[in-house]
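Lesson 9: reading folded outputs for more than one chain in a single document. The general rule is that every protein is listed as its sequence immediately followed by its structure tokens, and records are never interleaved. Here is the first one.
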Amino acid sequence: MTDIRRRRRSDHPFRELFDIDAVRAQLRIMGEDYLAHPVGGGISLRTRAAKYLKGIYQDGQKVAERWLMEDGSGRRCAERLSRLHDEIIALVHEMVVSVLYPVDNPSTAERMEIIAIGGYGRGLMAPGSDTDILFLLPYKQTAWGESVAEAMLYVLWDMGLKVGHATRSVDECIRQARADMTIRTSLLEARRVVGTGSLYDELTRRFDKEVVEGTAVEFVAAKLAEREERLKRGGQSRYVVEPNVKDGKGGLRDLHTLFWIAKYVYRVRETRELVAKGVFTAEESVIFRRCEDFLWSVRCHLHFLAGKAEERLSFDVQRDMAERLGYTAHPGLRDVERFMKHYFLVAKDVGDLTAIVSAALEERHDKPVPRLNRMIARLRSSPRRTLKESRDFIVDHDRINIADPEAYNRDPVNLIRLFHLADRHELAFHPDAIRLATRSLKLIDQKVREDAEANKLFLEVLCSRKTPEIVLRRMNETGVLGRFVPEFGKVVAMMQFNMYHSYTVDEHLIRSIGTLTEIERGDRPELGLAIELMGQIKNRQLLYVAVFLHDIAKGRPEDHSIAGAKVARRLCPRFGLSHADTDTVAWLIEQHLTMSTIAQSRDLSDRKTIENFAAVVQNLERMKLLLILTTADIRAVGPGVWNNWKSQLLRTLYHETEPVITGGFSESNRNQRVARAQREFRGAISGWDEAPLERYMALHYPSYWLRVDLDHKLDHARFILEAEAEGRALATTSQTDQARGVTELTVLAPDHPKLLAVIAGACAAAGANIVDAQITTTTDGRALDTISLTRSFDQDADEIRRAERISASIEKSLSGEIKLPEVVARRLPKRPRAFTVEPEVTLNNAWSNRHTVIEVSGLDRPGLLYGLTQTLSRLNLNIASAHVATFGERAVDVFYVTDLMGAKIVGAARHSAIRRALLHVLDAEDEAESAKAG
């Protein structure tokens, strides 16, 4: 029965949204009432009609949403919504010209046709799309035409529709289309909604003859440049984890651009016609329609869910979207992750279609032949020639291409050799070679995967000193990489549903290789110690393999580090690595999070921390490799994640551990490193006399000089000097960090056990979310704490004013002017959460010789740190040091504590009580409850 009903709706997908005859009859009654009692100059009729039609329109949208949930067709939903607008506009026009501005004997000038343009002209609309219409006239505007257009617009606006409009004659349309590419594009999709069609026919005929003819190259260049600029604004990767469905790379706008170009160049009205033109194969035409239907489904669902024209698939809607679209969880992958993986695979297909159309345009000479890849700096001009390494490949306009269509069938290893030769000769890829490679993926079978030459060529690509990131990305986009390394294929387009990772797993791995190349070249000083160590390692190949495989087992039920090590033990021998190198790669993958975790969440001045880490790494070579891998991993997570602070922490951990694992011998012992850091500081600071400088440097313990980066040391010195000059025992300062997207707040105050809780509470009361904290104590008993807060404003001036308000709140809190628990409870709102993080509390007495280490992990929120520190205070625990880190939505806060007598916390009952109290904070229904508990 359901199938019959859906088929019937497919045959008549438009009229059923509402009963048009009943609505027309009701509008006729309104018109007759108005003509019988014409008051208000037509305003009363317009108001009544708008109110009535608004209800009809809203009911129609609800029906469209219901049918979308039933049949799942996004394109059909978009068609229905477009037709809904058609019918509404036609009804409004009929009422206006028959009641308000009737013309018994219309002159030639008193003709008007209403044309849908832009996206509306395409006949596809999302629930929140703009309605772009053109009032088309034969000549210039008349009083009658102006009145009709104005009356119609008032009704449509009063209905709540977002109407973009223009009133032009046919001549004006042609003149403006010649001069303006945006107008030309909107007219390209013009469609008649109201009128006899004579003006529309004249417009389309003249548009083809006077605007389109002979201008294909100009139009294609403009549309591709427009696309490039759009993607530059939104970020070039199609694998960002909160994609824009409309304007993002691989989104609907890319499909629209393809269709505009195809329609303009090939003069077609449907994409399926491109098969006859030789642009698409029948299969590729089906892929286009499938991508379009999926993206329209996502966009329509997104608009319905948000209740507005929302185009970004943000984290807070992804879970609901997955449920609406019918995705279910699989072992290792949640429903939302399966939905987003499908989204990114579709985005990849859109990219493939773009390349296909570009290749076809080049063959027609409607698109200029591209330069070499933008990442390759030098340009060169080469004649068409065969490559000496293989007669199966030629160079055509500095792009590698196959010599004939049988090249891959003749030798399937050529599917790997294509990328190897492109890397070796720094060649761009010819679209024909890529397109045929995508169609030939089935040739990569187990025999090819185990072929010694194929693996040798792949390893050389992976470990290339040129641009392996670019070549691997192209290899991935064709599907060759996932087919040759099936384990990698499983993480292609895999999204991790968290706020920490900005890219899909495959994109993150490829970007990690790019970062490793930057480290090896040494052209990124901010990558710190990794650059110094890269030249010291004995085998660079195993490092590249480890970086490539470090997240290869994401999406499995088992811990991905352990499962990844198992994958490495299978793959490395296939790649040609020795048994010893395979063991090292597997170890690196299993431990790839260890160094980052210890550096960011442990007390590096605690001897036990260093001893424990040394027991893991065991030798200096492994520690060097692990630091480089950790640097590449963090840098490739997303913009702003890597920073000088993390670089300095890794450097400190490395140098503190080095003498332990070398048996006491150190290339640079601790005292020497402290002295070197102090000399660096002396050289950078200016305007200080020797005596004050010596006094200032004596304020800081050795760990400060090793743990804090130079920029922050200089900022701290100037801040403390200014505070002392003004006689302030309590002082605050702030600065923005655009790269990290945070604002740093530094507090100088007399140290006491509740200081961190007070600072955290003041931040929470102001609605500020703490994402990082550097806690430092001076030798004269003061605390120097630097807190990183999530930004609230784009403009620095606005953000600084916000920081000043928070600073004032901190100072008032510390001076006792405000009572924090009451303020926090009153000001923190209850907010919906897109994420869930399993709360964990661990107490460990083996991580420190002097302290009990409490590690708390849970969903981050404003007020969390305040709740935790308040709870520790109520439990009569002294916080010796705190290490606050945030990984997207997951907060990991580590506290080194003692009891009031300075001893470790012992006893199972005491541990259980602490754990329960902290879990209560993590499990609090909202921030206010947590604050009240404090």
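And here is the second record, again sequence then tokens.
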Amino acid sequence: MSTLVLGGARTLVLRGAICRGPLVAAQRTLATLHHKQGRKVSVQPTTPVVTRFAPSPTGSLHIGSLRTALYNYLLARRTHGKFILRLEDTDRTRLVPGAEENIYETLQWCGLAFDEGPVKQSERMAVYAKYIQVLLDKGLAYRCFCSKEKLTASRLDGYDRHCLHLSPEEIAQKLRENDGQCIVRFKAPDHYAPFTDLLHGEVNIQERRDRAGHDDPVLLKSDGMPTYHFANVVDDHLMGVTHVVRGEEWLPSTPKHLALYAAFGWAPPQYVHIPLLTSVGTDKKLSKRRNDASVLALQQQGILPEALVNFCALLGWAPPRDVAQQNHECFSLKELETLFSLDHLTRGNVKVDNSKLHFFNKHFLQKRIENPKQLEELVEQIVPDVAAKFALVDCPSLHDKVRHILQDCGHGLTTANEFTAAFGYFFAAPDYAQLSPDAQKLLSGAGRDQVLAVLKELGPDISAATVHDRINAVTEQLGIKKRIVFQSLRLAVAGDVSGAKIDLVLGILGSSEASRRVAAAITHIQRI
């Protein structure tokens, strides 16, 4: 099995070669380093597992975090295990108001029910204090009183462990001088043991050894709050977490976590580091700082939770080909719960292409239209927007009309948000002075006279029942292509040359309204 060696924050060491560059370059290289020897061995657990989703409430949940939550949820459900929600909220300076509630609402919206939690790390200070003392008593951690200036200066060359050998008396004196405040550091080992990642195989990550100092991670900050590294390990152990599925960006931190497990004498969980999500356009990592990756923003754009869950599941996981082909990779959450397996995770960064998300959304929107209960929910969602835009607040038949349009024409929608713009002509006659570019093109040049001739021949009393016979007759009588006849009638009744089937449009509009619009279109075109 191939071994990946990462040195420090910016050095990748592979087979004796040293490459300088950002850590992300090392992470991308990781995807190419896993080498299978012989027959592939399954890494999918066969007994119930305990997983967790542990976000920091520092902003709206984004699809990268949702994917992490989903994979942990699916692994727990597939093995009939436990899924825990834990809030890693100890960095109080980065908390964002409303972020905690956003996490709860997003998970509920997507149907990811947790079995335990939410557990807040900020409410577990006594627990962390207990285990800090364990490491201090073992001599595997030490109090540090160095100034910020000294620590800043040591970042390049590493920390010189100035405070490691302070006597108990010196520690007590410095605690009095600093009002009891200090940080607690972990005495990092000189060498980190290689470890096995269930996705990438054997990984060997070492700190840089071209520096005089050490990289002893901080476990407890001066405000008494634990760092991510320490609280993460303590909580995973106490909560019985057996499998940790998290983003590949946490791979360089894993040796520190495993060293802490060893220091306590605890058995670590199995780790699965899933690939980074990158933007198709920029090839940059998706971030919660960019609103286009926010689950809340996608929800506001009309994306359905079923579609988003389906989309996120496939960002680094591929079902067996025969299963995927059966329904074009469209899976409900319940189906994913029975299909998900660590054996089908993919390596290498994943490009996020929202066109696939829109494909799924269109699929699940149609499913909702076909479901009587969900159809009514869609109607209730759409009616206020239609009523406001077209001043139809007191229209008693509006619900029935919206429902009728969804059932007959809704298959063309990608999101419910498109309804008002796509089907506005059902509620207000077209403005023939503001036609679409395609409609204007149809009326240009000799096309104007053709359209006028078609509309005059179609005449009054046009209806859904007779429209196809009338179109066939006019096509033969005028010697005009049937396509032009269809487009002319559609222009008159809907203001565009394409859209829902013409008989469905006329059926919803009614013969009287359709005939009135044809007459109005004739009047307008004659003035051109």
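What the second record shows: The first helix runs from residue 23 to 30.
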